[in-house]
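Review the following:
>
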Amino acid sequence: MDFIKQAFNVKHEFWRYLVGSLIIAIFAIVGQFPFAIAAMFKYVANGGSINDMDEQALMSVLEPNLNLFLLLLSFAFGFIGLIIAVKYLHGQTIQSVTTARKK
């Protein structure tokens, strides 16, 4: 079966794409909370004020590896949201979304 043709064998109404996009966005936003909380807590613990915080201070308050991990965490949460949307809203597997091959 052709890759494009297999999209029409599953649930593909427009509202499913809207709800799926909302689910993915919510999961990605929830994934940003650990970074925001950790950075703000550390900034305030170092004597700063949340009102004075800018992007440079936000990115430099944590060590670089922890900063990278917490920033990438939102993408992992977004991917979990994508899996949920594809599996439960569209009734597809991740394999059928990525390829038309058997393996």
DSSP finds four helices and no strands in the chain.
